[in-house]
Amino acid sequence: MRIGFLNRLKPTSTSFDKPAEPQPPVTPIVLTYPSMKIPRIPPELTDRIIDHLHNDAPTLRSCSRVSKSWLPRSRYYSWHFVELNLKNWATFEHILREDPDIGYLVRALRTTVYFFEEKPNWVDENLPRIARWLPAVEELTLAGNGTYRAVPFHAFPAVRKLSVRECEFTDVNEFITLLHHLPVVEELFSDGVLVGSSASLAKLPKCLSRPKLRKIELHDTRLDPHLFWGWMTGEGMHEHVESIILLPQHKGALIPIGKFIDATGPRLKHFEIAMTALQLQGGYSGAFQSEVTYTAFELRRDLADVIGPFFNLASATGLRTIEFGSPADYASRYGSDDTSFSWISMMLAQTASPVIEEVTLSLSQGDLLGLGTAEWKHTVTTLLSDRFRTLKRVRMRILGPDKSSTDIRRILEMQLKSLEARKVLEFDMPEH
């Protein structure tokens, strides 16, 4: 029998012989140093931080829920711009009824109307009612491909900038009535707008405050130039205009535009224009004299009978910047075929402002061959003449492939060496 099997081993440690003594409770350490407290950010700093989030709508909504002190600034940017259309106008009106204070935060309003909407559309029926809650709108945009009427917009007395984009008006009367309803508008921007013709202008009621337009910018805007510019001149809209941008225009429109510019006189500071013409209809190129002393009548009469007698920049003695669009670029965009530099040369020769500082010309691949013509050579001669001795910058904006852009630049550097020596010649060659 194995005796060792019955013997138990004694434990080597005495920890099992008696229970462990209880330990006293440990008091937690609480950090009470002032430097460990949560910092309190001044409200002007939080406002500045929120200012950097003005284009981030989701973040602005989150900020508005952080605290009451963050709410006013967050709401200011959340409701700064409002876009209304057929789907959401009713929801927005409900929000204004629940909280009318939101209407005072709206500074920019964009409405969208489409051609398939039933007449009268939502703007005609509902916008005048909504406008009562929007007294602070300063920028108004009319968009969509639908047709607008002027009446719904009579209740926006604070609008300073009017933009109309890719939409339509039944006639010129509706378009000018819209301007008539905005007594403090200063900027008019139009792009891709179609305005129907009118037999004559309707007589508008006299407004208490006539709009003081400072900037007129028309891109691809199809309207009757004689009715529109005639009304603008007759109503004294020229009295405060400082900038006119017309891209593009046809030869016939220069007659009423010339009257408006002549009435504007030295107040005009910036003028930008592009022209389109068809050779089948006369175009604007013809026999050209390369002498600096040429007059408009030395050109073919189909253009000379307009530029000179009816359109003249000589009265714009306060002109500081002038810009011309590329003849070839606009010809390709609008289906015309006359890419002559004649009109640019004639308008430059008319410029008599003693304070002119900047001339900008846009050139594209299609203009390359034209750089050797008499019209362009006269343009260069005019730029180098004493009448442009006050120039601080001559900017050449070259559009098109790298190869043609490089060729155009090389030719211009040779032709305009004296401007480069004066360090006023600049090239702007956007990357493609």
Characterise the protein shown here.
With 432 residues, the chain is of the alpha/beta class. It folds into three domains: 40-77; 79-234, Leucine-rich repeat, LRR (right-handed beta-alpha superhelix) (Alpha-Beta Horseshoe), CATH 3.80.10; 242-432, Leucine-rich repeat, LRR (right-handed beta-alpha superhelix) (Alpha-Beta Horseshoe). 29% of the residues lie in helices and 16% in strands. It is built from 14 helices and 15 strands. The strands form two sheets. A twelve-stranded parallel β-sheet has the order 1-2-3-5-7-9-10-11-12-13-14-15, with helices on both faces. It has a three-stranded parallel β-sheet with strand order 4-6-8. It is globular. The termini are far apart. Mean pLDDT is 86; it is low at 1-7 and 286-301.
Short description:
InterPro entries: F-box-like_dom_sf. The protein is α/β, with parallel strands linked by helices.
Q: DSSP helix count?
A: 14
Query: What number of structural domains do the residues give?
Result: 3
Tell me the strand percentage band. 15-25%
Using only CA atoms, what is the Rg? 35 Å
Principal-axes shape call: globular
**Strand count, sense and closure of the main sheet?**
12 strands, parallel
The CATH level-2 architecture of the largest domain is identified as Alpha-Beta Horseshoe
Average predicted confidence as pLDDT: 86
How would you write the strand order of the largest sheet?
1-2-3-5-7-9-10-11-12-13-14-15
As a percent range, the share of helical residues equals 25-40%
The topology string of helices and strands comes to HHHEHEHEEEEHEEEHEHEHEHHEHEHHE
Q: Low-confidence runs (pLDDT<50, min 5 residues)?
A: 1-7, 286-301
Extended strand count: 15
Task: Assign the CATH topology of the largest domain.
Answer: Leucine-rich repeat, LRR (right-handed beta-alpha superhelix)
CATH top-level class of the largest domain: Alpha Beta
